[in-house]
Amino acid sequence: MRLARAGDRLRRLVTTRTSITLAGVSLLLSLLAMWVCVYVAGADPYHALTAMFRGAFQSRWALTSTLSEWVAITLSGLAVLIPYRAGFFNVGGQGQLEMGGLAAAVVIIYFDAAPALVMAAALAACVLAGAVTVGLPLLLRLGRGASEVTTTIMVNFAALRLMYAMITGPLQDPGAWYGTTPIVPSALRLQSFPAGSGIPVGLFVAVGLAVGAWWLLNSTVFGLHLRAVGGNRPAAAAAGIPAERVLIKAVLLGAALAGLAGGFQYLGHTFRVAEGWSKTWGLVGIPVALLGGSPLGVLLVGFLFAVLETGSRSMQALTGVPAALVFMFQGLPVIIYLALGAGLRRMGKAADSK
Amino acid sequence: MDANWWLDFLLAVLRAATPLIFCALGVLACERAGILNIGVEGSMLAGALAAVLGAVLTGDPWFGVGAAIVTGLMAGLVLAGMTAYLPADQIATGIAFNLVSIGITSFVYRLLLDRGVGLMAPSLNWGPAGGWLEPITARLAVIPPLTWLAVILVVVSQVLLFSTGPGLLWRSVGESARAAHAAGLGVLRVRSAALLGGSVLGALGGAALTLGWVPTFVDNMTMGRGFIGLAAVYFGRWRPDLVLFACLLFGAGEALAFRAQAAGAGLNPYYYLMLPYVLTLAAVAVVGMAMGPRDAGKPFVRG
Fold first, then answer.
1. Distance from CA of B297 to the nearest CA of A (A)
2. Within 10 Å of residue A291's Cβ, how many Cβ atoms?
3. Mean pLDDT of all residues in chain B?
4. ipTM for the complex shown
5. How confident is the model at residue B129 (pLDDT cuts 50, 70, 90)?
6. Which residues on A lie below 8 Å from B230 (Cβ)?
7. What is residue A5's three-state secondary structure?
8. Model's pTM, two decimal places?
């Protein structure tokens, strides 16, 4: 019995370690690919890549931008990771994030009260909006057996159009010629902490949430249930775990975090919900969650992606290498990671059957 | 709103629907073989750029179509290797593939712009036929070639899937890969063929977008049209004929949105653009997913 448990733990350690190694190898190989691309673009790869990494930190503005992106990407990554553990592939992070930002904007525009109260209400609204946005896909999954992948994608696009309709309609800044909400008054903005340091308050929350999620997934009964439900739902239900309730909680929690990401970005960084304001943070959460594999991994990979996102713009300015390279870097490591993982499993199977 | 307005509108609907039809058929072919082809958006984007490049470099839009087909084949090879043979998770692969595709196409596009390559593609139209056929062909030629191709492909795939032996086998792979394998079918071969064909169709959708409509390329210009194709497949209950109807409906939504934007009055055009997604969600809510191929999205490992 004890031996079996030790073996189990060893096996888990080995697989965790393998997946961390695989993620590292995939990221390195992708960097190498980026090197080649920069070379093809006619720039000096070393110069361009150092420009990229330096560009993410060189000025106050760049640093703040990098850290803000880190917040959004980390929260979006957790929004994918936590439901994923329960067997729900939340591709809807982008829509949940958009709706989070939009809900916060509605509060800021229409709710008139003491600044602290308005900000608290805006943050509550964005969390709620994220959870509400996943409601329909969740209901369809539970009630209709509909794959959440397709429904969350549909909701993403519907949410994006709704956001556009709002920022070019009722929520539009009357003084703007393009689709955007009015800018957040400075009294209602999330400040940096320590004051004037340029470190967004959201960062502390995001790191806290990642650590909390780590604890939740690895050291609580809920985390155990989550893994059981995600691994084998009938078996989990037979063991007396309220499978449906666990799934619902995990999904709502994840979507709420995506909504929070939107709220933080709106209140602390962009100050407007506008055309293209959210970039692809919600979408990037997917590769980050897959490569990170755990809440702390999400934090780590999220940082790398945030650095690349901000740094690529300075790379483009300095060396003329297109910043679009970053998208490649967001997708390529996942493909390598998946291929290596599946290849290893295949080899393992072949070895087993011999 | 006289006859001319309606003719214009119908042509606009067809123009908007054509890329969707290609993409939807690409998704349908894969789903019926048990593969969830999320990567169709990426294939479409790559096809769009390839079509513009091919057309600009050779001066002949038909070469653009050829370039899109070759690009689609390459995308299909990658996707087939990943999701059929290894097999890696289909959804994660598809999403990552789409990101890579946005990256590569935007990267190449910038490089070309920097090197001063103009990316205005000649649009694809019928040449004059001449001879005694002229009165007939002139009428048919109002509808662009790729639209004809899309409609023909709908008919062909409907017949192939539901009225022929190979179509039955194809569908059986999507319903139960294990049973099909037990019956001696090469599941992986069917799935690879589906991904190759599906990706070529996706790339043709991109070609229809650039050569048949907007004659140039911009970053991420497909704007989720691959996913509208996906929606059309679900809305159309995995049947080519109904999928065609769904694509026309969604195309009409897009055409209406442009018109509303141009008229500058009435409902915000973005509400029209929500139509495909909301309708699909409603369809899923009302009828559920029960009619979908049962093994779609599940990897198949022999043994």
1. 10
2. 30
3. 88
4. 0.90
5. low
6. 150, 153
7. helix
8. 0.91
Interchain proximity A329–B103, CB inside 8 Å: yes
Please, what is the average pLDDT of chain A? Answer: 90
Distance CA A36, CA A44 (A): 10
Could you give the CA distance from residue B217 to residue B118 in angstroms, rounded to a whole number?
10
Residue A122 has pLDDT above 70, yes or no: yes
b or e along A295-326 (b: 16 or more beta carbons within 10 Å of the residue's beta carbon)? Answer: bebbbbbbbbbbbbbbbbbbbbebbebbbbbb
Q: What is the pLDDT of residue A208?
A: 97
pLDDT of residue B107 exceeding 80: yes
Residue A49: what pLDDT? 85
Q: Tell me: the pLDDT tens digits for B70-83?
A: 999 999 999 999 99
Which of A291-305, B28-42, B132-146 has the lowest average pLDDT? Answer: B132-146
User: Is the distance from CB of B288 to CB of A145 less than 8 angstroms?
Assistant: yes
Asked if residue A333 lies in contact with residue A71, where contact means CB atoms within 8 angstroms, the answer is no
Which DSSP category does A354 fall into?
A: -
Q: CA A120 → CA A32, A113, A187, A260, distances in Å?
A: 45, 11, 13, 12
Residues A277, A259: Cα–Cα separation, whole Å:
14
Question: Does pLDDT of B155 surpass 80?
Answer: yes
A88 to chain B: closest CA residue: B91
Q: Stretch B164-182: mean pLDDT, rounded?
A: 92
Q: How many helices (H) and strands (E) does chain B have?
A: 12, 0
C-alpha B228: how far from its chain's center? 9
- In whole angstroms, what is the distance from residue B230 CA to residue A290 CA? 23
Set of chain B residues whose Cβ sits within 8 Å of the Cβ of A90: none
Please state, in angstroms and rounded to a whole number, the distance separating the CA atoms of residues B225 and B227: 5
Q: What are phi and psi of A271, to 5 degrees?
A: 60, 0
Chain B hits for A335, Cβ within 8 Å: 82, 93, 96-97, 100
Give phi and psi for A274, each to the nearest 5: -135, 180
Q: Is the peptide bond before B166 cis (omega within 30 degrees of 0)?
A: no
Closest CA relative to residue A279, chosen from A60, A59, A38, A93: A93
- Cα A64 from Cα B213, distance rounded (Å): 41
Report the largest interatomic distance among the alpha carbons of chain A, rounded to a whole angstrom.
72
Most confident region among A32-41, A227-236, A299-308, B1-10 by mean pLDDT: A299-308
Task: Taking the CA atoms of A208, A214, A216 and A220 in sequence, report the sign of the dihedral they define.
Answer: negative
Chain B hits for A37, CB-CB cut-off 8 Å, are 107
Q: Is B205 on the interface with A (CB under 8 A)?
A: no
**How far off is chain B from A44, nearest CA to CA, in Å?**
15
Sign of the Cα torsion A198, A201, A203, A204 reads positive
Residue whose structure tokens are 């479409």: B44
Quick one: which of A122, A152, A125 has its CA closest to A138? A152
A180 forms bridges with which residues in the sheet? A274
Contact B224, A157 (CB under 8 A): yes
Q: How far apart are CA A45 and CA A124, in angstroms?
A: 45
DSSP-assigned beta bridge partners for residue A192: A200
Which CA distances in Å does B22 have to A12, A324, B37, B44?
A: 45, 27, 13, 9
Two tokens, residue A284: 């990037």
The B residues from 62 to 121 touching A (CB cutoff 8 Å) are: 81-82, 86-89, 91-93, 95-104, 106-107, 109-111, 114
The position carrying tokens 């056929």 is B133
Cα–Cα separations (whole angstroms), residue B93 to A150, A329, B78: 15, 14, 10
pLDDT of residue A1: 40
